[in-house]
């Protein structure tokens, strides 16, 4: 592909900037299908940025689902690469898209990590690289799917002749020993 609009030196020096914002700041996971969206904006402020890509590396407690609107994306385990503005992202052009993830119940971790980076084959000055990456960290809690059932040991209560019992119970000690349950 011949370089287009790169100045008289035919050297394309791009200036990419990236914004990546998750749909949630913290998460209570209730089902195996809970989803998270990352809204992405990539902008190029200088010469054409050839072969521009957005790379998302993510922790194994989430799975990539899709990108909207549809783009050419490739998935490799916990990394997805999406082409942006192929063959190039033009000067003063920006693109918006959304990447959807769902929770992975096989990997329980207390934080979801997503690192998002914008790159291209064009040169970019060291002084403008600071806004090409975003690190997202979302604290996670899991709702326990615990069901308690109780089966009485005795199907009936025996009251012997002459015994008295309270008509109401004000303390649990009156009906038996206290049961302490702890979860770790």
UniProtKB/TrEMBL annotation:
Alphabetically, the GO molecular function entries are: integrin binding
- Membrane topology classification: Single-pass type I membrane protein
Organism domain of life: Eukaryota
Give one GO biological process term: cell-cell adhesion
Key words, A-Z:
Glycoprotein, Integrin, Membrane
Residues passing through the membrane, by range: none
* SUPFAM superfamilies assigned to the protein according to its UniProt record, in alphabetical order: Integrin domains
User: Which Pfam family, just one, is annotated for this protein?
Assistant: Integrin_A_Ig_2
Name it. Integrin alpha-1-like
The gene it comes from is LOC104963160
Where in or outside the cell is it found?
Answer: Membrane
| Boundaries of every Integrin alpha second immunoglobulin-like domain copy | 6-140
* Membrane recorded as keyword: yes
What taxonomic classification does the UniProt entry list for its organism? Eukaryota, Metazoa, Chordata, Craniata, Vertebrata
Major subcellular location class: membrane
What the entry lists under InterPro entries is as follows:
Integrin_alpha_Ig-like_2 (IPR048285), Integrin_dom_sf (IPR032695)
């Amino acid at each position: 592909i011949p370089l287009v609009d790169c100045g008289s030196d035919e050297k394309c020096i791009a200036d990419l900037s990236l914004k990546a914002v998750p749909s949630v700041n913290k998460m209570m996971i209730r089902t195996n299908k809970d989803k998270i969206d990352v809204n992405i904006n990539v902008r190029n402020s200088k010469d054409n940025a050839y072969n521009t890509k957005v790379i998302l590396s993510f922790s194994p407690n989430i799975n990539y689902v899709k990108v909207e609107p549809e783009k050419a994306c490739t998935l490799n385990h916990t990394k997805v690469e999406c082409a942006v503005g192929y063959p190039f992202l033009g000067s003063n052009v920006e693109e918006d898209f959304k990447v959807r993830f769902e929770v992975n119940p096989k990997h329980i971790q207390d934080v979801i990590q997503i690192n998002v980076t914008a790159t291209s084959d064009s040169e970019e000055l060291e002084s403008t690289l600071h806004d090409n990456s975003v690190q997202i960290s979302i604290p996670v809690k899991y709702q326990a799917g615990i069901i308690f059932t109780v089966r009485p040991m005795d199907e009936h209560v025996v009251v012997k002749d002459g015994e008295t019992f309270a008509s109401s119970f004000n303390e649990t000690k009156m009906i038996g020993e206290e049961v302490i349950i702890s979860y770790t």
